[in-house]
Every structure is written in C-alpha cells, then in structure tokens.
Design a protein that fits this description.
Number of strands: 6
CATH class: Alpha Beta
Strand content: 25-35%
Number of helices: 4
Number of domains: 1
CATH topology: Aspartate Aminotransferase, domain 1
Oligomer: single chain
Shape: globular
Distance between the termini: 29 Å
Helix content: 25-40%
Mean pLDDT: 91
Order of helices and strands: HEEEEHEEHH
Low-confidence stretches: none
Radius of gyration: 13 Å
C-alpha cells in the first residue's frame, strides 16, 4: 500500500478528516478523533498505525511486522503499528476499518448521529 492508496482509502469513510502533522504523518480523524496514521518508514514502506480491540492488541503485537504503536501504546492505549513490510492491502484495509468503527462507537451518540 502506498501513501496515496492509504489516503484514498481513509478518505472513503463517512466524516473522515485529513491532516498532516507530527513531522509528515498522514493523520486521519473522524469527529476530531484519530482512527489511523500513515507514515513512510525506514525501509521506504508505509507504516500504518491503528486502534484495536484489547484482544487484537494482544494477538497482533506477537505477529511479525506488528508492534505496539510507538508513543500511543506506551501510554496504555491499544494502538498497533504495522511496519516495514508489504502486507496484502486488503488485510491493512480491514484493520483500518475496524479502527474507524472502534473510534465511532466511542463517540457521543449525538456525534454518531451526524455520521448517518
């Protein structure tokens, strides 16, 4: 997945907002809450960071090319980073979509209504 592919996919979510911040990271938010971050890594591949369920966090951090997201996970948040590999785009998309759903579900009901 290229950074253009990442941005195109993330832009397809209802209410998705884009900002470049934190030294050139592609940050995607819904109602002001981050759901995914993309950044070109050391090996010139896209590193993708996303929120996970507790179960997926514990499972994915043991898998190759996944790690607790730098900074976010060190603060106790359940964020995983996929890094330095060429995972099938569909798998990455599923993880981003799950992150979006987790973030939307945590929004106040009034904000969720705005996304319908």
């Amino acid at each position: 997945m290229t950074d253009d592919d990442f941005n195109t996919y993330c832009s397809s979510f209802v209410g998705a907002e884009y900002v470049m911040q934190w030294g050139g990271s592609h940050v995607w938010k819904v109602m002001g809450k981050v759901f995914s971050i993309g950044r070109i890594g050391d090996k010139e591949t896209l590193n993708v960071t996303f929120k996970t369920s507790d179960f997926d966090f514990h499972f994915l951090q043991e898998e190759e090319h996944y790690r607790p997201a730098p900074y976010l996970a060190s603060r106790g948040l359940k964020w995983i980073q996929y890094y330095d590999s060429h995972l099938d785009d569909e798998a990455v998309k599923e993880l981003i979509a799950a992150s979006y759903k987790i973030i939307v579900a945590a929004l106040p009901k009034k904000k969720q209504q705005c996304l319908l």
